Amino acid sequence: LFAAWVLLNGKKGHLDQTVYRFMSFSIVLTILGELAFTFYVSVYGISNLVGHYFKILSFFLIYLALVRASLKKPYETLFRELNESEKKFKSLFEEMTSAAALHEIICDENGKPIDYRFLDHNTAFEKLTGLKGKDLIGKSVLEVLPNTESHWINIYGQVALTDNSVHFDNYSQELKKHFEVNAYCPKHGQFVTVFNDITGKKNSEIEKDNLIGKLQKAANEIKTLRGILPICSSCKKIRDDKGYWNILEAY
Fold first, then answer.
1. Residue 76's pLDDT is what?
2. Mean per-residue pLDDT for 49-53?
3. In angstroms, rounded to a whole number, what is the distance separating the alpha carbons of residues 198 and 196?
4. pTM of the full predicted structure?
5. How far is CA 114 from CA 109, 151, 207, in A?
């Protein structure tokens, strides 16, 4: 037992300090217990009783070292770190200014995407869409928004079934809004959408295009007007750029 303690002490730097202390005390108690057994003369003697107490304490320290410190504590630490990471991720998910939602694609018997189901979403999703979480989770998009265009389902189905990511902007007739969307696949058959409302930006672009069109039309009209000659309906003379009236033939 003493040789075992020497070997254990030599590996001290490779062990957790709590494990090292428990194992060292266990060896010491085992030595004391064995010594107590050598001194007893009766199975009912105090020396025999003390020896068994030392044994019990020694085994208890081994239990603390091998089970609690080496096995249970690391798992508790691991799960605590996982829970903390989950809480951080959930907090980040909820505090996003962009809307985000997790969905599950629904296919027909031929594997063609025909619908998708809402699994989770953040607060910004409700703000941007005007939809409430209690009306979404577990339901399909065609149950909540029956007039949803098929191109949304087709795009998301491609993402969920091919594990590809897409970035696009499109108009939702159901929600009367333009959205800029990033979609990716966290798990086969599922997809996450992160999107923003760009209706104001799109309307500005449309207004800008309309204004440019009007300006181009006005410019063409001005060019046409510049080609018109001012002519006197009475004397039939033409006015030049300097304001002088000239005979038609001379002009």
1. 67
2. 90
3. 6
4. 0.51
5. 10, 10, 35
